[in-house]
Write a structure and sequence with these properties.
Elements lengths: L10 H5 L3 H25 L5 H13 L3 H9 L2 H9 L1 H24 L7 H20 L8 H12 L3 H15 L6 H21 L9
């Protein structure tokens, strides 16, 4: 008896999302990330990528994290438009704007009385990884390093999580200039948790999102 394998889903079938599905994914993803940033700020940790660069400047200057995050991402929109397309760029702009607003206003709506840095690092890393994955599967990102890592996964078949980890470790090394080494160590733990989560769950060829 001759058996045939079931037809595989086409890339188009996987990629199609309704506007409502895109909206809820972008909102949920940015909400998860904003919660992670609140956890990190509460205990003096930081993350990698452009959010990490915003943290470094925030700790060094006292300027609000939301304003810095929005400004740092401005140069990456041109690259995203040229390399990733209009849809990706517009969704990324919406996600970055939402996260910037959440970072500005969430501390007024949400407070944590006690939080251990190790717990914040692990939970924050998982929230960051989940949020970025929500966005990636709906053709959006939080800009900066994420744009670069997703582009390299698309064009070079490099794992986005691996690329992101290299970038994040470089940013975290700069953190030694503004926060104490123990806090950097906890931040590295958070970055490892986040990027391992992305590397396991966002392998090239598993999801046709780009």
């Amino acid at each position: 008896m001759v058996t045939t394998s079931p037809p595989q889903a086409t890339a188009a079938a996987v990629q199609v999302h309704t506007p409502f599905e895109d909206a809820q994914a972008i909102f949920t993803g940015t909400l998860f990330v904003s919660l992670a940033l609140i956890l990190y700020a509460q205990v003096g940790l930081m993350t990698g990528g452009t959010a990490g660069a915003a943290f470094v400047l925030h700790y060094a200057t006292g300027i609000s994290l939301g304003k810095l995050f929005f400004a740092i991402n401005l140069p990456f929109y041109w690259f995203a438009w040229r390399r990733m397309g209009r849809e990706f760029t517009l969704k990324t702009f919406v996600a970055i704007s939402l996260l910037s607003a959440m970072a500005e206003w969430s501390p007024q709506l949400f407070a944590i009385e006690r939080l251990h840095p190790a717990y914040a690092a692990v939970l924050g890393g998982l929230l960051l990884g989940s949020g970025c994955l929500f966005l990636a599967r709906h053709r959006a990102s939080l800009g900066g390093a994420t744009v670069v890592s997703l582009y390299l996964q698309q064009s070079r078949n490099w794992r986005a999580g691996t690329v992101q980890m290299v970038i994040d470790c470089s940013i975290l090394a700069l953190a030694l200039t503004v926060i104490e080494p123990s806090r950097v160590a906890y931040s590295v733990l958070g970055a490892v948790v986040m990027n391992l989560f992305i590397a396991v769950n966002h392998r090239p060829g598993r999801y046709a999102v780009l």
